[in-house]
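Bug report

Summary: structure tokens for Alpha/beta hydrolase differ between web form and batch submission.
Environment: batch mode, default settings.
Steps: 1) Submit the sequence below via batch. 2) Compare with the web form result.

Sequence submitted:
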Amino acid sequence: MTWVDVPTRTIDVGGVPFAYRELGPAGGVPVVFLHHLMAVLDDWDPRVIDGIAGHRRVIAFDNRGVGASGGSVPDTVEEMGRDAIAFIRAMGLQQVDLLGFSLGGGVAQMVVLQAPELIRRMVLAGTGPRGGGGIKEINKVVVKAYAKSALTLKDAKTFLFFPRDAEGKRAAKDYLARLKERTHNRDKKISLQARRAQVKAIRVAGLDQPDDLSVITQPVFVANGDHDLMVASSNSTDMARRIPNARLRIYPNSGHGGVFQHHRQFVSEVVGFLDA
């Protein structure tokens, strides 16, 4: 079973159906994936999912109000974190590893701060700390990318995730092709309500007071590209510095989607980190 054909299941979380997919070997501590702004299950790179699922049980889910999950998306990362905690507990899991990308990395920080006993290790990719700064620039970058997307009929991730040089363009093309490999039982698209709530949550978190990340005692692997237009690479570096037991990996000649552009190295390093 691979990411392109694994079935989508649902589980009741406090009266709300949450959609999820699960694959990989049974036993051990599972890895729970938290996805990015405006993403659903089908926006996960199959090479990253399958690569890690070759070694560990992987669970990816749509949080409240996202994709095929019921309810409405909350407009704060704290509430998103509480919903993720509720999902993990509804799955009957006593302890998990987290892999959060972009907004998912912000939600992962809320999970570990609110329920540290649930988390063994954590991977934070393409993300930064609350109150990290640059939130106004992010809005401009996103608006510009969607304008280019409308003019060129290309996916906005082409401009948001990858550099616009030859290597970046090839990486974008390959990544977007991989996202289309699943042709059946695809997830529902993100709703307008979900988009608005997520954008508001990111804006509020960007302007909020920083969290005390020194209380995070779990091992953390922080990864990003060296030229992230959405979350400044310096924010990832600062976050890693503030977490006592963190290691940092910055991938060369890449941006927000550096972990997808360099998916082979990323998967290898994540598996090694989780098994350490």
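Above is the batch result. After comparison, the two runs are identical; trailing whitespace caused the diff. Residues 135-152 form the longest helix (18 residues). The mean pLDDT is 95.
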